[in-house]
Amino acid sequence: MILSLVVLLLGWNYINSMYKFSSSTKVNDDGNFTVMSFNIRLFNKYDWLKDKTVKDSILNFIKKEQPDVLCLQEYPRSEQVRLEGYHNFNATYNKGVRGGQAIYSKFPIVNSGSLEFPNTLNNAIFVDIAKQQDTIRVYTLHLQSSGINADVEKLKKETSSHLFKQVGTTFKAQQDQVELFLAHKAKTNYKTIITGDFNNTAYSYIYRKVKGDDFIDTFEEAGNGFGRTYDFKFFPMRIDFILADKDFTVNGFKTFDNLLSDHYPIKTTLKLP
């Protein structure tokens, strides 16, 4: 009993990263705006889900929720979706810049760009948006995936040595990508929001490096329950994040449970004093 208690106490700081015991905090304020992050898995281009209406369902979901800023990962390079009432930056349609992600904003976009990660299809993009008298930078990241099939039955057939090697290679690539991102972020003085699919958990070195000491995990601040963002059988994995620097007040957070991808969308409500 004493040993179990000691282990629980040692791990107490990590519990909020996995599970929020309190109900979601929601504070109404005229200064609120919302940010959503969603890995849409190419709008189900290769029929992972048998439902043929997935793309329309995703677009209807976005139309219903009306986030002020929308960050999409695994955005299909072959098409450009226009959303009424939004400005957008889609790297696919900028010459020499890798696609696969998009950011939509109801606020004017005054600058945008892409961070090209070497030897991979992954990248990060950013926009600077004008909100009243402030300029806010918004990043969305899609860090390296391990490529490991999340199906539990298929995982059982993998050898531990092969999995270990694959995961090690992935984490090294993620570390290199994060170093490039941090070097880019260090060049701006704008108040910043970081969103995206990190392909790693809140316990990882990668997450700690991106979050640093200056950012708030909006789920930990105002979320509820496990906050699962990835459809992994038997275990509630949270690998998608919205981080806001400490100048922002977090007035709400929601994890949606509609299965339109292998990821679940997340949305936070922020205020900038």
Q: What would you note in describing this structure?
A:
This protein is α+β, with helices and mostly antiparallel strands and 273 residues long. It has a single domain, classed as Endonuclease/exonuclease/phosphatase (Deoxyribonuclease I, Chain A), CATH 3.60.10. It is built from eight helices and twelve strands. It has a six-stranded mixed sheet with strand order 3-4-2-1-12-11. The chain has a six-stranded mixed sheet with strand order 5-6-7-8-10-9.
Pick out its properties.
single chain; 6-stranded mixed sheet; 12 strands; 273 residues; Deoxyribonuclease I, Chain A; globular; alpha+beta
Write the layout of secondary structure elements.
Layout: H1 2-10, H2 12-18, E1 32-39, H3 41-44, H4 54-65, E2 69-73, E3 87-90, E4 101-105, E5 109-116, E6 123-131, E7 134-142, H5 152-155, H6 160-185, E8 191-197, H7 205-211, E9 215-217, H8 218-222, E10 240-245, E11 249-255, E12 266-271
Parallel strand pairs: 1-2, 7-8
Antiparallel strand pairs: 1-12, 2-4, 3-4, 5-6, 6-7, 8-10, 9-10, 11-12
Helix pairs in contact: 6-7
